[in-house]
Amino acid sequence: xxxxxxxxxxxxxxxxxxxxxxxxxxxxxxxxxxxxxxxxxxxxxxxxxxxxxxxxxxxxxxxxxxxxxxxxxxxxxxxxxxxxxxxxxxxxxxxxxxxxxxxxxxxxxxxxxxxxxxxxxxxxxxxxxxxxxxxxxxxxxxxxxxxxxxx
Amino acid sequence: xxxxxxxxxxxxxxxxxxxxxxxxxxxxxxxxxxxxxxxxxxxxxxxxxxxxxxxxxxxxxxxxxxxxxxxxxxxxxxxxxxxxxxxxxxxxxxxxxxxxxxxxxxxxxxxxxxxxxxxxxxxxxxxxxxxxxxxxxxxxxxxxxxxxxxx
Amino acid sequence: xxxxxxxxxxxxxxxxxxxxxxxxxxxxxxxxxxxxxxxxxxxxxxxxxxxxxxxxxxxxxxxxxxxxxxxxxxxxxxxxxxxxxxxxxxxxxxxxxxxxxxxxxxxxxxxxxxxxxxxxxxxxxxxxxxxxxxxxxxxxxxxxxxxxxxx
Amino acid sequence: xxxxxxxxxxxxxxxxxxxxxxxxxxxxxxxxxxxxxxxxxxxxxxxxxxxxxxxxxxxxxxxxxxxxxxxxxxxxxxxxxxxxxxxxxxxxxxxxxxxxxxxxxxxxxxxxxxxxxxxxxxxxxxxxxxxxxxxxxxxxxxxxxxxxxxx
Lengths: 151, 151, 151, 151
What we know:
By secondary structure, the first copy, chain A, is α+β, with helices and mostly antiparallel strands. In chain A, 26% of the residues lie in helices and 39% in strands. In chain A, strands 1-2-4-5-6-3 form a six-stranded antiparallel β-sheet.
């Protein structure tokens, strides 16, 4: 079973989310923070689309990065941070619907690297949620010592 | 040498860009449209950042997706479209600076699939541009017949 | 539920496997062929390792490519083929054990593109199988017409 | 300019190559070891192919992993090692020819992570080399302390 090294992870993640300027711009909201797993959603509007009327690939990558990254962040020791080393997104279906819903989870948590996945769904009235994208990421843990070294 | 199958590609791309709601939300502007190569930039503000003050990974993926996708779109026949099948972004350096600058280009253009790359830089006063991310993508061509088939 | 367009898929896949020179070189054997899902294994020997004594990353990518590709091939119409457009492998744990076991499966099967995943495990005496790698791929369908066009 | 932290990198890489069982099995030979850049080649035979007579995707991933990984290894301090965290390969063209030639190089070398790329070409009599695949990787540096910690 995956366990966290930070008993305050929920509060610490909420403080970080409050400083995510780009997440706020998109309107994406985190709805659930668990050990090794994060969920969130947004209401789709014109500002989220590309020219064919589908959810923009960049928006989908953004929500995937957020839920995967904070899933990794939920497990690292207090005072540590997580940055995305790389992110790959496969776009399975066009994103058409009222809501975008995303879930990120850790598949391997190491001392320095975490491997995470994210699933992004659209929700349409009277339909089953449709998986529109799947992402895999490598997340790197930043220790307090790493941050000092940069100063 | 890469050649296009659409003599009106610049005009056709500008019309598609005008309908990119999410690109407008981010403030990213396309500054150059060439055969197989697209460039663009944005002025960095708080709304583009994550909690450490770096350009958000989702924003970087977004601009990479846009410049790579329209680089592919510049080559396909008139009436055809391009969608992202998959996108991978490697985050090489933290994005700190006044401007974000991105270039996308096609490395292999096929009848059905195009493989593209994108480079994303930050520009800081009195500094050389710094490469902060590199992306590789698979783009799928959508023919007018494909679109009808969906109706 | 995923369904195949080729009632002879098992036989057709076996004929293709018989002509996979590189798979034979590695000693990997397919043990199960189902609709949308393929499994296989190999007995680990020195010729499969890198310099630290772990399963070689290239071998892991090879078995992932094979099981993911034939999972996609199990679904396409008779006479069609599948080629790998791209493959990403995340290496989660060092591969140490007696056997390597791999499973590939389709997560979205389209007319032209299939998205697949593969999981690679090591099996060690008296241990649970350990997931050492996870792969995601984009597979492109080649129609009989495509092949003629190349001639 | 990229610089190495190990003056003996050529000799140290040669010793590691001598213990690469899987590389030997494939017949791939390293032909050039420079700071941050490695080249190699193999003569194509039936044992390198898939069922359509093209270079196998797994073989291509293998040579990409080797040249990218040792490019990263050429830069790390003496006694340190490099392991592949993830590898993505885009397959641009079918691999048909007498020889496979590969080059790996580092695009960002960090203390803990290196980002590398690899290009794989086929060489056919009387033809220009043809780029058949391009790979991007994240490589993790293993310090002598990391290795002890595992014991």
